[in-house]
Each structure stands twice: as structure tokens, then as C-alpha cells.
Amino acid sequence: MFTKHRTAGYNGYAVQWSPFFEDKLAVATAANFGLIGNGRLHILSVGAGPAAGAVNVERVFDTQDGLFDVCWSEVNENQLVTASGDGSIKLWDTTLADFPIQNWHEHQREVFSVNWNLVSKDTFLSASWDNTIKLWNQNSPRSLQTFNGHSHCVYSAMWSPHSPTLFASCSGDHTLKLWDTNSPAPVQTILAHSNEVLTLDWNKYQDHTIVTGSVDHTIKVWDLRRPDRELNCLRGHEYAVRKVKCSPHSGSLVASTSYDMTMRMWDITTGDMIEIHDAHTEFVLGVDFNLYRDREVATCAWDESVHVFTPRCLM
Amino acid sequence: METASQQQPSQEQVFVRFEGYDFANDETFQSGLQSIVRNNQSKTEQEQKDAIQSAKYFYFTRFVQSFDLAQYKAWCADRSSTVGSSEVTSTQEGGSTDTIGETQAETVGNESIRQIPDNLAEGTPSEARLAPKLKPWEQKKAAIATSS
């Protein structure tokens, strides 16, 4: 199966499958490549079985500024949060049209990532180019906490899938930092790459393993108990690595996207590249594994298209 | 036999070409630049400069010749440590800084960008009806726990 959906006029920045419905996919996009102009959040329903290949647009929400990331709520099946170029964070309810149900504006610059707590499920994180990370509760009018420590843009902050208080962040300051919400300062700092670190994700099956991707074109696998050196360095991308995603189904599988216009998949236990998806014609930014259809993957790119397919390595 | 690398210009040649590129007389770039300037009016001077610089990079790599921004920045940093950075930026900006002033003066709305009010949705947000679903890794852990 290979399904292509056009997000006409909007360049893809992030995709995420719903944690409640196996067919629902959220796509965060921005007009004019995110440099100027509006944003649009797309809620798609992607068919399976006899309906495979059918994409139904359930809802679109337009925003003043480009959307750089999206994350579904872990507590309400209809809600999701987005990160904007204008520094705002919006909470949407797919049962209500046109406008968000919450709009927070505390960050001073672009918000590049939002991530919902996978364990306690009552908070989420935002990471911004203002060098800070903020902790939020969907019912609070203001952020609960601000984490300072990075000396450059924070590109991503992601909760541990195993702990309600532990999260990791990566930054233009070349580091990966580990934080606990009980402490204002980072609990661990790893000088991870020789250039900006744009993305990270936690391995879902190994508590101490994190994967990072960088402008230096490489992906590194880290064991937080041995921070002096990476376990593995995965080479193959020809330009900056924009997103890494650990499979929810296997501890050895990682997907990555890059400005080299490909999505690739890796076996991190052997270090082998096992898939190259080169059907996009512009920078590939978003990738996500469907949580409940275990071979389905979605990608989005600046070519205004979303691809949903089963990679050859998973057939 | 010539190798591919011999046929391609060196990275430095590309950087020099980028800096010497006549953005001021490139109509396509200038038309895009006007809307960038309009949309960055409320921002600080540095932010406006950054937006213009990113637009130049974006335009050049897409339509003229692709290069890696990180490597370009590293190259600029190397050079400015020997040449003096202010000199570099002033020559690099060239005519386009003048155009920025002009286009700011011409500013009148922009049809391509929709104005979306900063409203909140009317109506009552939905209540959660579904209990959180176990993630695949949680299901596998639960299966192992019950089987042992």
C-alpha cells in the first residue's frame, strides 16, 4: 500500500498518529516553507483493509503563523496541541470548528516541538528557539515551569516513555540534556554532536537508550549510563537529520528524515540502514509509526505531500 | 576520467557565488522579499535581518545552487576571524538593504496571507470518552508480566 495525500499550498513539518484511533493522522504544516504566512493543521482519516488508500480529511484548522509540530493529547481522544512559528501553543478539539480551545503565548520565539507526557498523561512540554523548555497542563492558563540551561535554540524536548518526570532535550548548542521536573537544572548533559542537534527520541524498549539526529548528517544511539561515547553512529544521510523516531513495535528499529529528501530506517543493533524512502521531492521533515497498525508509517515533506505506506523492510 | 568532484565547483566557490549573487535585481526574489519584510515589521532589526538572510539562503539553495547552511556558517566564522566580521556583512548586504527600506514604505496588506483572529472556539470542548489505550510496548510488558 502506498497512499499519497496532498496538503496543497502547505509544506509538511510534522505528522503524528492518534494514540486512540488507528486511522487518525494529524499533520502540522506551514505555507511558504514556514518562512512567512499561515499554518494549517490537518486531521486525516486513513483507510485500511478494503478501504486502503482512501484518505478522508476530517478537519482542517488554519492558523496565523506556520505550524512546526503537533502532538495528540494522551487523555482526550479529540484533542491535540500544536507548536507555532509565532511562539504560540494552541490546544484544539476536533469536535469544534475553526478555533483552538486554548491559546498560550509565553515563548519569545518559534516553538519547535510539543510532546505529551506518556506516563502521567496530565502535562506536556514545549521546546523553543528562545532557548527554554516549558511544562504545561492543559487546564492551566499559564505554564507550570520553565527550564533554562541550553545556550541556543531548543529543537526538541521529549518525555521518557517509562517515567512521569524524566525528559530529554536537544539544542543548537550541540548537547543532549536530561531533566527531571523535580529539579530546575538539567540532571545530565552530553555533548552529543559536532553540530546542532535537531531531534531526539527515546527507545521504547530500553529504558536508558536515546537516539539523536544532527546537522552533522549523523544519527547517534546513546546509553545514558555511559554518556562519554555513543553506542553507535549511523551514517548515510547526505544532509542534516531533521527527525528521528524510535519504533513503538521494536527496540531495534529507528526511522529518520533528512534535508536530503529521504526517510530512512535503521537497525540500531547492527547499525545497518535497512530502508530508503525516496519518493518525496523536497526536504522530508516528519515521520511517525502507526501505533496500532504495526507496519504502517506516515511521512510529510516540503513537497506538500503526506505518504502513508508499509516500508519494504516491514513487509 | 574526470571524477564528479572535479566537475562540481568547490564549496568555497559556491559560498562566494552566494555572497556575490545579485539579489537586488532578481525580480522573483524581490517579490517574495516584500512579503517577508511586511510580515516581520513588528520584529526587531536583528530578527528582520535574520529573516531576510534565511530567505536568501532558501532561495539560493532552491533555485540557484544547493549548499549546506551549517558549513557556510562555519566558513563565515573562519573567515571573519581573519578578516573582521563587520566588513563581511556590509559588503554582503549590498543593494538589498536599500530595497528593504523602500518596500517597508510601500507596505499595504498582503492578500496571500490570511488574517486569522486570535479567537477561542465557541461551544463546549468534548469530554474524554475513551480510556487511554496501552501502547504497543506497554502491551508487550503486560503480556510478559502475566505469562511469567
UniProtKB/TrEMBL annotation, chain A:
Subcellular localization, as worded in the UniProt entry: Cytoplasm, Cytosol; Peroxisome matrix
WD repeat copies, ranges: 76-93, 104-146, 147-189, 190-232, 234-276
Species name: Dissophora globulifera
Gene3D superfamilies xrefs: YVTN repeat-like/Quinoprotein amine dehydrogenase (2.130.10.10)
Gene Ontology terms describing biological process: protein import into peroxisome matrix
Assigned protein family: Belongs to the WD repeat peroxin-7 family.
Pfam families (alphabetical): WD40
Protein name, UniProt field: Peroxin-7
InterPro entries: PEX7, WD40/YVTN_repeat-like_dom_sf, WD40_PAC1, WD40_repeat_CS, WD40_repeat_dom_sf, WD40_rpt
Main location: cytoplasm
Presence of the UniProt keyword Protein transport in the record: yes
PROSITE patterns: WD_REPEATS_1, WD_REPEATS_2, WD_REPEATS_REGION
Keyword Signal: no
MF GO annotations: peroxisome matrix targeting signal-2 binding
GO cellular component, one term: cytosol
UniProt entry keywords in alphabetical sequence: Cytoplasm, Peroxisome, Protein transport, Receptor, Repeat, Transport, WD repeat
UniProtKB/TrEMBL annotation, chain B:
Region: Disordered, residue numbers: 83-135
The PEX14-like helix-turn-helix domain, residue ranges: 12-79
PANTHER family given in the database record: CHROMOSOME 10, WHOLE GENOME SHOTGUN SEQUENCE, PEROXISOME MEMBRANE ANCHOR PROTEIN PEX14P N-TERMINAL DOMAIN-CONTAINING PROTEIN
Domain Peroxisomal membrane protein PEX14-like KPWE: residue ranges: 113-139
Protein name: Uncharacterized protein
Ranges annotated as biased composition (Polar residues): 92-113
